[in-house]
Amino acid sequence: MKRLLLLAFGLLVSMVLFTPRCYAEFPDPAKMATPVVAPEELGMDADALDRIDALVEAGIQDGDFPGAVVAVGRGNKIGFLRAYGNRQTEPTVEKATFDTTYDLASVTKVTATAISIAILVERGLVKYDDKISKFFPDFAQNGKEDVTVLDCLTHTSGFTPDNSINDYIGYNREEIFQNICKLGLRTPRGEAFAYSDVGFITLGYLIEKLTGVSEDEFVRQNIYLPLGMVDTGYNPNEEQRARAAAAEKRTPDDEDWIKGQVHDPRAYEMKGVAGHAGNFSTATDLAILASMLIGHGTYTPASGADPVQIMTPETFKLMTEAIVVPRGIRSRGWDKRSPYSGNRAVLMSPAAIGHSGFTGTSYWIDADMDLFVIFLGNRLHPDGKGNYVGMCGKIGQIALDSIHDPIDEQDAKAFVEKSVYRSPNAATSQDRIEGETLAGVDVLARDDYALLKGKKVGLLTNQTGRLKDGRQIPKAMQDGGVELTTLFSPEHGLYGALDQANIDNATDPETGLRVYSLYGEVRRPTPEMIKNIDAFVFDIQDVGVRFYTYISAMCSAMQAAADMGKEFVVLDRPNPIGGVKVDGPWLDPGCESYVAFFPMPIQHGMTVGEIALAFAHYYKLNLKLTVVPCENWSRDLYFDQTGLTWVNPSPNMRSLTEALLYPGLGIPEFTNLSVGRGTDTPFEVIGAPWINADDLAKKMTALNLPGVSFEPITYTPTASKYADEEVHGLKFTVTDRNALQPVQLGVALMTQLAKDYPENWELQNANTLLLNDQTLQAIKDGQKLDDIVKLWNDDLERFNKFRAGYLIY
């Protein structure tokens, strides 16, 4: 009988390991590799990707890590693969190479454990909502009886991040798990997100329990060898250890640095094999795994070898779908957007999954954007210090920005058609009636807010969010029967009166509603803020310039809504400076920030509704978006031709004239130049104590710039730069707004200042808003304006083709 049981167990193990996909023999690794090709073959820009070099080399120079390997690719190919610096500097120097083996640390959680659990769920051996105590009765001690597999995968089990190392030292694997079984919970299950190695160590034991083999053997047989990943696994062999990246010394008294052994102390005590850490790999091996994930569970080698399915598309979808946890979004094992997502590119789609590792590793895959980004570094060598997380996010964003896929015009048209609200009460005539423009909110109100009835609504707005009759939109919505539950405010607050760095949450006295500031502790609505709303509404007047932050507030809120599966409604407003002109340099790859949320020229010529359409469609937000368009507005209209009342969008944007000049005169705002803050006419004057006003006026006049004249002026700002100090400069008068080219005006001014006052003017700080190194260098070099403008031509042509698919006026 005993023999029969043993035979049955052996058969079960064989079925688990090799059913339903049986690998009679593993494929030739040479045929499974992801080839390195020219970026252009993958629809990526090589010059953009080259910007990664400066980031990594700066990290090495700053001592954040001695070396690294970066791989960026799409589909089943690599478009960028480079090794930097050294994999070891003590006691001898070894250069980093493409085949350097890196300790993945917590990236193990996803490259081994999360995928293994997904496979076992697919095979019916476990369910995500199974309790751990179902398989380990002793685990049900001290309040852990209800902790599930999913709790461990999403770090919501209530476990401590790490239990004492003394629970590991001197114990065998079985005894170590018994020590874990004795632990209590730090917080009640499901009430907090607390990143925990203990949960993943537990999952590693579960994999062994279910399969009858160690986790390292299971992943080797079921993931790595089928994919040809011969350099990935636990406990590297002698040859792999020889080319491994070094870490720090295990103790200060050790003679040798850790090299080819797991750094994590608990995984080390577990003989190198654990659910939370211990995996080693190379960038090229991880590219294969990433390609499998982009293929939704199936890897199709570029060589033409037979595809290999590791999991079904249904299993992949289940593993990677968004799960709301306190303080963020996770999936079943993977990070998506949480407090640990600093290495995530800000514009990756909601489909993106990834993770980071303590040793200096980062791994992100965005299947919807067909992109993977791999950074393998050893930040702990030689002294256990080093920071790399933020840099990895920038590398990912450069990779995303390098993609130049053409827009599918038919697809974009269909998306716009689906997303733009068609009012049943719209005028039948197509003739524009000048002075009778209706903003989106006026259209919505005319239709009795039907679009929002029956929904719990959150509203992001400020003082510009008002109807044509002057009523503020929050109270008007309440009076109109909309169930408005929450307000959100952008930079300058709900009433547009605050000119400060951080704004606190508040209560709106008119509606009594909670106002969450998106310009304080957070810039993006948290899941807790929007979990109880059905629709997120945006209504704020923009001014048509890339660095005006209301676009960033909208796009960030759209990302949050997409993550949470919420509807997003944009109540459109006219672009006050018109929708015809598009001018200025393109945002440099990887330079996204809150003053430049996604790539576009400085003057974009779009409304916020059109930007929302472009952002949601291009970055595949999978968002139910509705844009309520303006009526009786066309692209050639300026704000004073709409019949709408000018309301200062921000404290220092007080007139249409200032908005017209802002695309150019706003650029140098972060330099030591007054742009009129602290005067009655901000962005209509500039000055500094060191400027010769008469001379500058003559030189600027001589340039014959269209649509503007210059007057020497002396003034004393009461606030901001040079407060209470006399400055000399220029007053700008718009003489022909149709001819005015404000960005070119700003660049011409900066070029002249750089030429005349190289010792006085802090030109470099102009790149805070300019964000284009080539243009900045051309200004420094004193190039002619026409030659500088030519630098933008290709990008402007590309942007005009891009935006054409999303224009609704």
Descriptive notes:
It is built from 27 helices and 26 strands. The termini are far apart. The longest helix is centred in the first third of the chain and has 17 residues, at 2-18. It is of the alpha+beta class. The strands form seven sheets. A seven-stranded mixed β-sheet has the order 19-20-18-17-21-22-23, with helices on both faces. Strands 3-2-1-16-15-14 form a six-stranded antiparallel β-sheet, sandwiched between helices. Helix 4 packs antiparallel against helix 14 (389-401) and helix 5 crosses helix 13 (313-320).
List keywords for this structure.
seven-stranded mixed beta sheet, 31% helix, 809 residues, globular, six-stranded antiparallel beta sheet
Give the overall shape. Answer: globular
The total of helices stands at: 27
Q: Say how many strands there are.
A: 26
Q: Report helical residue fraction.
A: 25-40%
Main sheet: strand order: 19-20-18-17-21-22-23
Q: Strands, helices and their partners?
A:
Blueprint: H1 2-18, H2 29-32, H3 46-49, H4 51-61, E1 67-74, E2 77-88, E3 94-95, E4 102-103, H5 108-122, H6 149-154, H7 173-181, H8 197-211, H9 215-224, E5 233-234, H10 238-242, E6 246-249, E7 257-259, H11 265-269, E8 279-281, H12 283-294, E9 298-299, E10 308-309, H13 313-320, E11 323-325, E12 328-330, E13 335-337, E14 353-357, E15 361-366, E16 371-377, H14 389-401, H15 409-419, H16 440-446, E17 456-461, H17 473-479, E18 483-489, E19 506-507, E20 514-517, H18 527-530, E21 535-539, H19 550-564, E22 567-571, H20 608-618, E23 625-628, H21 656-665, E24 685-688, H22 693-701, E25 708-715, E26 727-734, H23 742-756, H24 767-770, H25 773-780, H26 785-790, H27 793-804
Parallel strand pairs: 17-18, 17-21, 18-20, 21-22, 22-23
Antiparallel strand pairs: 1-2, 1-16, 2-3, 4-8, 5-8, 6-7, 9-10, 11-12, 12-13, 14-15, 15-16, 19-20, 24-26, 25-26
